[in-house]
Structures are given as structure tokens and as C-alpha cells.
Amino acid sequence: MSKAKTGLGLIGTGNIGRMHLVAITALRDAGLVDVDIHALCDIDEESLKSAAELFEAAKTYEDYNDLINDDNVDIVYVCTPTSKHTDIVKSAARAKKDVFCEKPLAHSCPQAREMFAVTKDAGVRAGVGLVLRYDPFLLYAKHLIETRDFGYPVLAHIRVDQHFPIEHGYYTQWRGNHSIAGGGTLIEHSIHDIDILQWFFGDIESVYAKVGFFSEREVEDQASLILTHKDGAVSTLDSIWHSLDRPNERRIEFFFEKGYIGVTLEADERWLEFQTIEEVRVRVHRDNANNALLDTLGVRAKNIAPEAYDALATVGTERFSAISYAFIKAIQSDRDPSPGFLDAIAAHRIVDAAYESSNKTRTVEIL
Ligand SMILES: NC(=O)c1ccc[n+]([C@@H]2O[C@H](COP(=O)([O-])OP(=O)(O)OC[C@H]3O[C@@H](n4cnc5c(N)ncnc54)[C@H](O)[C@@H]3O)[C@@H](O)[C@H]2O)c1
Fold this sequence. Notes:
This protein is of the alpha/beta class and about 375 residues long. The chain has 2 domains: about 5-130 and about 320-335, NAD(P)-binding Rossmann-like Domain (Rossmann fold, 3-Layer(aba) Sandwich); about 135-320 and about 350-360, Dihydrodipicolinate Reductase, domain 2 (2-Layer Sandwich), CATH 3.30.360.10. It has helices at about 15-30, 45-55, 65-70, 85-95, 110-120, 135-145, 180, 185-190, 190-200, 285-295, 305-315, 320-330, 340-360, and strands spanning about 5-10, 35-40, 60, 75-80, 100, 125-130, 155-165, 205-210, 220-230, 235-240, 250-255, 260-265, 270-275, 280-285, 365. The chain has a 9-stranded mixed beta sheet with strand order 14-13-12-11-7-10-9-8-15. Strands 3-2-1-4-5-6 form a 6-stranded parallel beta sheet, with helices on both faces. A hairpin with a 4-residue loop joins strand 9 and strand 10 (about 235-240). Helix 5 packs antiparallel against helix 13, helix 6 packs across helix 10 (about 285-295) and helix 9 (about 190-200) packs across helix 13. The radius of gyration is 20 Å and the shape is globular. The structure holds nicotinamide-adenine-dinucleotide. The site of nicotinamide-adenine-dinucleotide (NAD) has 26 residues, from helix 1.
């Protein structure tokens, strides 16, 4: 059965909750989704009040169970710090609400699996905030691989640096607390990168990792992984949280039998470069990448109104608007959203294995 107007409730009106609210408001105002931002919840009274005013939510709650049990809430966005995700998702699912949960789903893969099982038993749909899947340049890279002969994958490398999100950018103390965040740069930030590596190169079958605590905080600030994929390709990942005053940067490189794709993200300037045996190096900029995003969403680039284009493709919010557009459309047409909890579980398995590998100083096979 197809739902028309969807009532949305969002729990956690901090950084990322507001990012989703900005994106969903823009989608709604541009006529791209039929959704009512009905209720918000936060334990921080001031944050709740200001968000409710800003996003014109009819209801506010300080207890998430009250939001979940509001009859006008059909889907629940879970945007609290990570340690709360498990309980909130399970409660929402048991109340038969579809859920969108921020990454990481939980502190461990077994917890993430439990969350998935509860959503399955309840018959609700569940999406996850692995937003790099809606990055325009990565979608362009997917498009290249699908339309050109790159041959088999050989080697991928991701290196990602971010200023400690405890004191910069997000300014969130909980990210330095292991019992809330579950870990540092590996689980909190680079779960995105592991998802991307498996999305492009397929399942990983073994992990060798070293994580470091150079800043002497409770959570790791460095993680280096060597990952072997099932078909033999190798990926390496270097992830760091530092205290330098420089733009965050994510560099992703894929080498194939017959071609190369390199993507630079987060930095002041973003671009993609590719090269094949037949073609010289080509640099792709924003507009072409945005077309790949619109194609993926099934939105016709030629006929799109300017406000709808801005809602979907504005630099900085585009991944969030695109993932919510895809999520809400999937829920409204009774399809499973992508990425879903199974995608997150696949990434959590590798995160867990990387921590185990580093603790035991040996390679961990993924069974
Ligand atoms: N997808 C992404 O790219 C991305 C980026 C950043 C953060 N995140 C994830 O989003 C989540 C939130 O991160 P953030 O930076 O927004 O944190 P934040 O601290 O800015 O916001 C969290 C909010 O949740 C509220 N909260 C805490 N416990 C609560 C409870 N029991 N009930 C209701 N509200 C509660 C806090 O008061 C706060 O306002 C984390 O899991 C983080 O990993 C995802």
C-alpha cells in the first residue's frame, strides 16, 4: 500500500539532525517529497526549542518514546550519538515505524545485526546514513565503470584526514568518549570508507589493521588497514584525526586492469580524474557529477526546476538531500531503501575485524 503524506519524526537535533532537517525542508519546499516534519525530540531543551522554531515542527518531545508513539509519525530519523542508536531503532521498529538511522548503527556488528533482526521481525524498512553512496563524484565513478571497459579491479586506496571532531567542526565532546562513540576515526569516520571499498570492489575476505592512539585520548586517532577482497583485489585505507588547521580531505583511488579513477572529496575543491588504456586523462567537475546524482535518483536533469536542482545538488548538503530523497521515495513506494541495514552490517563486520586484527597483531579472516 502506498502512503501519501509521510509524517516524519527526528530524534537528536544536533549537527547531523539539523543537516537532515535542512535537506528535507529544501526537498519538501521544492515539491520533491511529500513529507510533514511533524515532531522533533532532544534531551537538550534549548536545542529542541530552536530546532522546532526553525523547522516549524508541530510537536516536540524530550523522551524519544513519546515521539515514536505519536500516531502522526510514520518514519523516525535517529540522529543521536551512537550509543543510543540501538535502543531507539528497536523501539521505533517495535512500534511499526520505518527508520533512518545515522551511521555507525552501533558499537559492534552483533549489535547492528540485532537491530536488523528487530526491524525484520517488525516488518519495517530501515535505511542508514552512509551518505558517501550519494556523493555525486562517486556516483560518476560508478557510471564510468558501468559504461566503459575498466577490466578487473586491482587496487584501491583511500586516505582520509579530518580535524578532531571533538574540538573542531562538529564540536562534540561525546566523540572523545569511547563508551558513547564506540571508537574513533575508524568506526566514527571511516565506516563510510569501508562501505565505499566494498561497494566498488566487492566483499572483503581478510583484514590486517593497526590502529593508534597518538593523542592519548580514549578513542583511536589513526587507523591503517590492508584489505583483501574476495576476487583478489587489494584495498588500503589510512584514516587520521589530527589537530591541524587544514581542510578535511578524502582521496580515493581505484586502479583497474585497464583504467584508473581518482576522486578528491571534502577538500576546498572536489573533482574526479579518470584514464583508460584507450583514453587520455580526463578531469570531471561538479556539473557532470551532479548529472550522475540526478540520474541515480531518477530525476530528469533536463526538466528540473532551479529550486529542485538546488535542493538536490547544493554543495555540502547534496549527499544528505539525495539520501533522504531516495529513502522517503523508497518508503512511500514500499521498497527497501538503499543503503540499508545489511550494507551497514557488511561495513561493521570489517570495522570489528580491523579492531580485532590490531589488538591481536595478526590478519583476521572474514568467515
Ligand atoms: N552520515 C554522516 O556523514 C554523519 C556525519 C556526522 C555525524 N553522523 C552521526 O550522527 C550522529 C549524531 O552526530 P552529531 O554530530 O549530530 O552529534 P550532536 O552531539 O551534534 O547531536 C546529537 C544530539 O542528540 C541529542 N541526544 C542525545 N541523547 C539523546 C536522547 N536520549 N534522546 C534524544 N536526543 C538525544 C543531543 O542532545 C544532541 O543534540 C552520530 O551517530 C554520528 O556518528 C553522521
